Amino acid sequence: MTTRFEGFADNKLAFFKKLAKNQDRDWFNEHKSEYEDGWRAPMEAFLGEAREKLDGAYPHLELGEPRVLRIYRDVRFSKDKTPYKTSVAGGIAIKIGSGGMMDAPSALYVHFSIDEGCFAGAGQYHVEGPKLEQLRRALLDEKRGGELSSIARSLKKKGFTFAAAETLKKPPKGVDPDHPRVDFLKMKGLVVMFPDMPQAKLATRDILDWTVKTAKVAAPLVEWLAFSVS
Asked: How would you classify residue 79: left for phi > 0, otherwise alpha for psi between -120 and 50, otherwise beta?
């Protein structure tokens, strides 16, 4: 059974502020329970309940198992050798083949950080290779692309915005600069960013209710994307 979510430790991300000033193993091990009990375990419960509540919004797709991202930074190729992230994040990917969270659109991604703030979104942040070509073909197709335009207009009216890992300065080769979906065609990915998250509610169940309600509104775009890049 899914553990009931009761809220995160606080709405100020106090643990991560302390961690930013104490980036060493001894300190982290001494305070690890603050992270596990106040943030990681609640995030697992949060995503577990969110998955159950979002299932009905995806009648044609299966939601994968929730995943909480590691707090340990990968410093192998980074000049910044600080070992710990000052954030907690996780998501629920659409289950497509054997792909993981980075290889398929996500029904939900949440991120709480002292540097980047608290935000949530859905979609696929980075798309490349054959999948990017599939996405562009869908955007160029009058029927499929028209469906996306309609979904996007509705989301924009409700305060959603769009993003990707990379956005070209110019349209892809062969694409008319005046194409009605040129902004999407420039993007190497497609994520719908939720309206401003109510950070003041982090320590209560209200944050779960808000997130699920908002994620359901974004579901049509995620479903369109899943069938366009699968």
From this structure: alpha
What is the greatest pairwise CA distance in the chain? 58
**Percentage of the chain modeled with pLDDT above 70:** 97
Task: Say what the pTM is.
Answer: 0.94
DSSP-assigned letters across all residues of 28-54: HHHHHHHHIIIIIHHHHHHHHHHHHHH
The span from the CA of 68 to the CA of 130, in Å, is 28
Q: What is the 3-state secondary structure (H, E, C) of 119-144?
A: EEEEEECCCCHHHHHHHHHHHHCHHH
Q: What one-character-per-residue DSSP string does 154-208 give?
A: HHHHTT-EEE-S-B-SSPPTT--TT-TTHHHHTBSSEEEEPSPP-GGGTTSTHHH
pLDDT for the residue 100? 52
User: Residue 113 belongs to what H/E stretch?
Assistant: strand 106-113
- pLDDT over 60 (residue 9): yes
pLDDT in tens, 163-173: 999 999 999 99
CB-based burial, 11-28: b 16+ in 10 Å, e otherwise? bebebbeebeeeeeeeeb
Count of other CB atoms within 10 angstroms of residue 217 = 18
CA–chain centroid gap for 181, Å, is 23
> What does the pLDDT average to over 135-163?
98
- Sheet containing strand 87-93, edge to edge, reads 67-68, 87-93, 106-113, 117-124, 190-193, 161-163
Domains of the chain, start order: 14-229 (3.30.930)
Q: Are 23 and 84 in contact (CB under 8 A)?
A: yes
